[in-house]
Design goal:
By secondary structure, this protein is mainly α. Helix content is 74%, strand content 0%. It folds into two domains: 2-73, no CATH class; 89-151 and 217-333, MetI-like fold, CATH 1.10.3720.10.
Length: 340
């Protein structure tokens, strides 16, 4: 196990170095001047030169790259060109919101997607199977931004015209609860730590629409993978043997079939979690969710290289860590898998 963790740590460092270099070179190749974007068109040449010098943008690209890699090695991700705030601080402010939204979306996808896939496999070639897979295909096909706007209109805007306050349109929590101490920056967890049950319920209430919107595509994928894996396992010899021994249908499906079909399910859950933690730009934009996806979009629009590189490093770290967790879950799901 220690060897496995050490290997993943080395891989993480190499991936981060490679991605940092590639993203740095790519951003230098893109036309545009971040200093001009920050100061505006009416800035004097002296102001532009002074800001460029203070940010180190007047040095050759290879010198900037070497200085940046050295700073990152000491845990310094630099400062945002646009507002001079530390990049690490901004990522710490925005990433918890994305984490909260992603975990909620994946919980929704698992709670609905896995049972749907199991039921579709057990009722193979029935009307229920066809209906489930048609719904999964529809879930994959619907654009996220369109689904978000439809849910907002049908479940928030339209009911409000009739005096019903079903769901909030945007934000993470109602304004009356803004005074809750931000210990973890996860609003739901902070509300629980503060002992405010109503604020915790309000945070969950704000999560429903964005989590359903973001979780629809993972739900559909999980349902299809679960169905496919269950069909393969249900036709295997050991499942037929279990049935011949007189085991009940529930025991055969849940204890024998589902556990052996978990490997592909865990894989797709890990990949989808990594993707969503990398920033769900469209969902965060529709619901005005202050996540890292919106932060990355704003950084790209402003050509804020330190912030862009910080977001990319965060995304890469998330992917490697999530993949390592998935590999560990393989061993939990299948005792035959061991890491030495």
């Amino acid at each position: 196990m220690l060897r496995f963790l050490a290997d993943r740590l080395v891989r993480l460092v190499l991936v981060l170095i490679a991605i940092t270099i590639v993203s740095f070179l790519f951003m230098h190749a893109i036309p545009g001047d971040p200093v001009a974007l920050r100061l505006g068109d009416h800035a004097s040449p002296a102001e532009v030169a002074h800001l460029r010098s203070s940010l180190g943008l007047d040095k050759p690209w290879f010198v900037q790259l070497a200085l940046y890699l050295g700073a990152v090695a000491h845990g310094d991700l630099g400062q945002s060109v646009f507002d001079s705030q530390p990049v690490a601080q901004k990522l710490g402010q925005y990433f918890p919101a994305t984490m909260e939204l992603t975990l909620s979306a994946m919980v929704f996808a698992m709670i609905v997607g896995i049972p749907a896939g199991v039921i579709a496999a057990v009722r193979h070639r029935s009307a229920l199977d066809a209906l489930t897979m048609s719904a999964a295909l529809l879930g994959v096909s619907i654009p996220v931004f369109w689904l978000g706007w439809i849910l907002v209109y049908l479940l928030a805007v339209l009911p409000s015209h009739h005096g019903l306050n079903l769901f909030p349109i945007s934000g993470r929590i109602a304004a009356m609860y803004y005074g809750i101490p931000a210990r973890t920056h996860l609003v739901f967890v902070d509300a629980l730590l503060a002992g405010n049950g109503r604020a915790a319920l309000d945070a969950l209430w704000h999560l429903v629409l964005p989590a359903v919107t973001l979780g629809t595509i993972p739900l559909a994928i999980v349902a299809k993978i679960t169905r496919s894996g269950m069909l393969d396992v249900l036709s295997s010899d050991y499942v037929r043997t279990a049935r011949a021994k007189g085991l009940g249908r529930r025991a055969v499906v849940l204890k024998h079939a589902l556990r052996n079909a978990l490997i592909p399910i865990i894989t797709v859950l890990g990949l989808q979690t990594g993707l969503l933690l990398g920033g769900a730009v469209l969902t965060e934009s529709v619901f005005a969710w202050p996540g890292v996806g919106r932060l990355a979009f704003e950084a790209i629009s402003n050509r804020d290289m330190p912030l862009i590189n910080g977001c990319i490093l965060l995304f890469a770290t998330v992917f490697v860590v999530v993949n390592a967790i998935v590999d560990l879950l393989y061993a939990a799901a299948n005792p035959r898998i061991r890491y030495s």
